[in-house]
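Researcher: Structure for this, please.
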Amino acid sequence: MGTELKILTTELLPESGRLSATAFRQDPAWLHILPDEEDRRRITPLVQTALLKVEVAHGGLPRGAFIEGRLAGFAVWFPPGLGPAPLWRWALRLPELG
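Model: Predicted structure, token format:
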């Protein structure tokens, strides 16, 4: 099986969000925003998944790296000329963070 690079389906975005949240849980910015470890453990996966959904809805192209069938990493990039997602796209995802 080895290593594969594949398009991430929308079903895999929550898993990607959890992976990202785990990777950045001790990031100084998150430590400042959410000093309580339990809050970070609960909230960061929701935020990271919402961020991914916004970027994909805006035209981002998600790709995942799989090792032995398990998601090991991912990236989202944008076609040339596509700028950041507008604020209204972020606002649509706020209920998911509640």
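Researcher: Any notable elements?
Model: DSSP finds four helices and three strands in the chain. The mean pLDDT is 91.
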